[in-house]
Amino acid sequence: QVQLVESGGGLVQPGGSLRLSCTASGRIFRINDMAWYCQAPGKEREMVAAITRGGITTYQDSVKGRFTISRDNAKSTVYLQMNSLKPEDTAVYYCFANDLVHGVKWGKGTLVTVSS
Predict the structure, then answer these.
(1) How far apart are the C-alpha atoms of 32 and 99, rounded to whole Å?
(2) Taking a C-beta distance cutoff of 8 angstroms, is the pair 64, 83 a contact?
(3) What is the DSSP string of 3-14?
(4) Given a cut of 90, is residue 18 above it in pLDDT?
(5) What is the DSSP string of 74-95?
(6) Which of 97, 80, 92 has its CA nearest to residue 26?
(7) So what's the pLDDT on residue 66?
(8) Burial class of residue 30 (count of CB atoms within 10 Å of its CB; 0-12, 13-18, 19+)
């Protein structure tokens, strides 16, 4: 009964920035972990960044120093600030959340295209 909706994707030039948002709605009990995953064509889905309810973050090595994940627990929202974007970042970005009762939920994804 938990739904995740992402927003903020789009087309940007290399070096540009985007801010992705994902809001959970529905019958939420308690969301522990939230994360952003990406999936490029022909590639496996992989974690980009994750954040615990307490604010502990984990990043994929390739985005460290460029991306920042944050969350607002009161709004059940997770953000991904993406700076210094590279063409290699082009992918569909999926929101992930783990609710204590309802388990893992995935968003539908938002496309990020980095191209000149």
Answers:
(1) 6
(2) no
(3) EEEEE--EEE-T
(4) yes
(5) GGTEEEEEE-S--GGG-EEEEE
(6) 97
(7) 98
(8) exposed
Residue 85, token pair as written in the block: 């974007």
* CA dist., res. 78 & res. 27, Å (int): 17
Nearest-angstrom CA–CA distance, 53 and 41: 31
How far is the C-alpha of 109 from the C-alpha of 98, rounded, in Å? Answer: 16
Predicted confidence (pLDDT) per residue in 44-71, tens digit: 999 999 999 999 999 999 999 999 999 9
- Residues in a beta bridge with 8: none
pLDDT at 1: 75
Largest CA distance in the chain: 44
Contacts 24+ apart (CB under 8 A), 36-41: 36/69, 36/78, 36/80, 36/93, 36/94, 36/95, 36/96, 37/93, 37/94, 37/96, 38/89, 38/91, 38/92, 38/93, 38/94, 38/112, 39/91, 39/92, 39/94, 39/109, 40/90, 40/91, 40/92
